Amino acid sequence: MDQSPQKAATPTARAYDVAVVGGGASGLAAALFTARYGLDTVVFDRGQSAIRRSYAIENYLGLLGVTPEQFLRLARSHVAYEGAEVVDDLVTRVTEAGGGFRVETQDGPGVTADRVVAASAYNADYLSEVADGELHDEGDHPVDCDEATGRTAVDGLYVAGWLSGQPHQVLIAAGHGGRVGKELVSDYRSRRGHWDGVDSYWDWSVEADSYGDETWHEHVDEWFESTLPEDHEFDEERIERVREAVKAERLGFECSPAERDARLADARELLERELGVGDDGG
Which of 8, 111, 132, 249 is the most buried (most CB within 10 A)? Predict the structure, then answer.
């Protein structure tokens, strides 16, 4: 595994599938889900950080006594491990452009993104020009959105964490960010032909040969057919394309023993490096 990644000064690309504004618990959790799905994701992480007000995190399940900086280093390393970029720059303006968004920053050239997750805890004034200024008034908090899913009235724009009206707690912020990232992926799949019931993406890992036998195929086919609306007008090509995509996704959850062992070794190294947690052999 590479050494602990430092935040980059500028993005490596000019266009992304997802841009996340805010590198706290909610933003990094959203980025984790979008990056693991395979969407090109960049996180802009600068500005006033709510989590650093605490001397330690004492109410995050399993991380008793971890300092805010340790938590953020661990979370950034995890997100980078899964393929997202974390950039040390402040987003100053988000505008709609070409069916997506233009994200301008304080120091860098900015980027375009198909989707944006606003996950800054305190300030969302960079959204004041979106939807001709009707989405957000300067200084307001929270941003108007569906509090559960983070969706806004602007297609492709989501809000995560405290900015959405969720409770101001790091564990809840991380959970909500994960929910928002998952909803974003579901919307992405819907635009590519997945219908309600198969648009949700479930992210997990299993041992090799857990799936794929005849009984598994029969079970998946039965479930898949049950998701088709009674009055649907989907053509057979679309149905079979989505069926095969869903099966391929689930088969992709399988890890060979070598892949499993490599990822677990990486995880132990990451924990030891960022938290000082070693393997005691137990």
Answer: 111
Residue 252 Cα to chain centre, angstroms? 19
Share of the chain above pLDDT 70, in %: 95
pLDDT band at 282 (very low <50, low <70, confident <90, very high): very low
Give, for 245, the enclosing helix (H) or strand (E). helix 236-251
Q: Which of 6, 4, 34 is nearest to 19 (CA)?
A: 34
Give the Cα separation of 21 and 249 in Å (integer).
29
CA distances to 26, 69, 194, 236 from 251, in Å: 29, 37, 18, 22
Alpha-carbon Rg for the chain, nearest whole angstrom, is 20
Burial class of residue 203 (count of CB atoms within 10 Å of its CB; 0-12, 13-18, 19+): middle
pLDDT tens digits for range 224-265: 999 999 999 999 999 999 999 999 999 999 999 999 999 999
* Coil vs helix vs strand at 120: coil
Q: Which domains does the chain have, with CATH numbers?
A: 15-190 (3.50.50.60), 211-252 (no CATH)
Report the alpha-carbon distance of residue 227 to residue 12 in Å, rounded: 40
Q: Parallel, antiparallel, or unpaired for β 41-44 and 15-21?
A: parallel
| Predicted TM-score of the model (pTM) | 0.93
Which phi and psi angles does 60 have, rounded to 5°? -100, 115
In the chain, where do the E strands start and end? 15-21, 41-44, 85-87, 91-97, 100-105, 111-118, 157-159, 206-207, 254-255
Predicted pLDDT at 278? 58
CA 110/CA 90 separation, integer angstroms: 10
- Range with the poorest average pLDDT among 45-49, 148-152, 175-179, 263-267: 45-49
